[in-house]
Design a protein that fits this description.
The chain is mainly α. The chain has one domain. It is 87% helix and 0% strand. It has helices at 2-77, 85-95, 97-111, 119-147, 151-167, 172-183, 187-213, 217-224. Helix 1 runs antiparallel to helix 3 (97-111), helix 3 packs across helix 7 and helix 5 runs antiparallel to helix 6.
């Protein structure tokens, strides 16, 4: 009798242990499912933020592109001595580039992101803004070099190169080769050269602007306290 009771107790204990093990396994599986759902939710949120950032960067890229186009047009017109003052305005517009991007990023951060944005998203916004602005400016530059009168611009450029070549003490034959190479450049080559320069400027300024304008929720709460 005692043996049967003992066997029943051992069997009951084994069943209880199996049930506990099964419950523990179910709990771990549920936790894994929750973690996976959290990861999926985080990815969806990040993708939504990326699309949102890209959409606003496209709009603000058009604004920056308009500033660059005006600056470029004034620079071209300033090659004519009658419009030299436009060169000063063009330089001011060019120098305003980081401030325009920073102001637009601040508006995006405060109005769309509730006053906070990470460095990563800010950097992505800046890169996208510079990319779309460069794309817009490159199209305008190609059309300008293709259809507009390049005489005054080429004359001023050659005069500037003459000074550089004198400083480097190039021979007359070498100077002529340089000037011939410049005059033979096609519109697509000019546009591509400016495009590369604009992209490099964007790559240099983007992390700086993103670092200055980044603000996290934690930092904002600490400031309010």
């Amino acid at each position: 009798m005692n043996t049967e009771n003992k066997e029943k107790q051992e069997e009951q204990q084994i069943n209880e242990q199996k049930q506990e093990a099964q419950m523990q396994q179910n709990h771990e599986q549920m936790q894994q499912v929750k973690d996976q759902l959290h990861k999926v939710k985080t990815i969806i949120i990040d993708l939504g933020k990326i699309k949102q950032t890209k959409a606003f960067a496209r709009q603000d890229g058009a604004i920056l592109g308009a500033v660059w186009i005006v600056s470029f047009a004034f620079t071209m017109l300033a090659a004519d001595p009658a419009y030299q003052m436009l060169g000063l305005v063009a330089n001011i517009l060019t120098i305003s580039t980081p401030f325009v991007v920073a102001k637009r990023l601040k508006a995006f951060r405060d109005q769309v992101r509730d006053g906070h944005i990470s460095f990563r998203h800010g950097f992505y916004y800046c890169i996208q803004t510079f990319f779309y602005a460069t794309l817009l400016l490159t199209i305008v530059q190609y059309l300008w070099f293709r259809f507009m009168d390049m005489g005054p611009f080429m004359s001023q450029l050659q005069a500037n190169y003459q000074m550089v070549m004198q400083a480097y003490k190039l021979t007359a034959q070498e100077s002529k080769a340089v000037l011939d190479a410049i005059s033979m450049m096609k519109p697509i080559a000019w546009a591509s050269m400016f495009m590369i320069t604009d992209l490099v400027v964007g790559a240099v300024l983007s992390p700086i602007i993103a670092a200055v304008m980044s603000r996290r929720k934690f930092n904002q709460q600490m400031i309010q306290k």
